[in-house]
């Protein structure tokens, strides 16, 4: 492939990505799903699920990243870091916001491009619906167990702590925070008031003392 043809191919793939983003927005009209920047997301029951398209601009391949987290995780996280006003943010903030719990990545399956952009969009939505149905029966322990088995559990430390706190498991949450502080980990968050495990540990101790 010549340099010119490579540029033309890449340009066409970028155009397909833009068309897919538009197709996703059109597809979810009248549904409980929302779409922004190529990400489909929804809440159902106790869970937040996002399906992010990943169009490969170098090859004729499209995949999707599946993300899940409990709906209770972000509001508790915002309390722990002293930003409770973020509870007023729209649902999209739980995916795009700089100050939000990271979600558990369930997988990145390849999506068939057969049928073109409208068909790809439908498959993304079908994948999202199937994921919502799958996680609907999860318990907190099953979710936390999947975090423990993740390739990078420390990335999900804020989500783990927030989920434990929301479940009333203060002692477990505090122990995780204290261990992280001892290892000098910041839990993906650092402010003038300290790191995430430091701020969360302080909040938990105060909450337990006030109970």
Task: Please characterize this protein's 3D structure.
This protein is an alpha+beta fold and 211 residues long. The protein has helices spanning 3-27, 73-80, 93-96, 117-135, 140-148, 157-166, 170-182, 196-210, and strands spanning 34-36, 39-44, 47-56, 61-70, 104-107, 110-111, 190-191, 194-195. The strands form two sheets. Strands 1, 2, 3, 4, 5 and 6 form a six-stranded antiparallel beta sheet that branches. The model has no long low-confidence stretch (mean pLDDT 93).
Derived structural class: alpha+beta
DSSP E strands, number: 8
Strand count, sense and closure of the main sheet? Answer: 6 strands, antiparallel
User: How large, in whole angstroms, is the Cα Rg?
Assistant: 20 Å
Query: Would you list the SSEs in sequence order as H and E?
Result: HEEEEHHEEHHHHEEH
Task: Please state the overall shape, judged from the principal axes of the Cα atoms.
Answer: elongated
| Count of alpha/pi helices | 8
Proportion of residues in helical segments: 40-55%
Oligomer: single chain
Low-confidence stretches: none
Task: Give the mean pLDDT.
Answer: 93
Separation of termini?
68 Å
Taken as a percent bin, the fraction of beta residues is: 15-25%
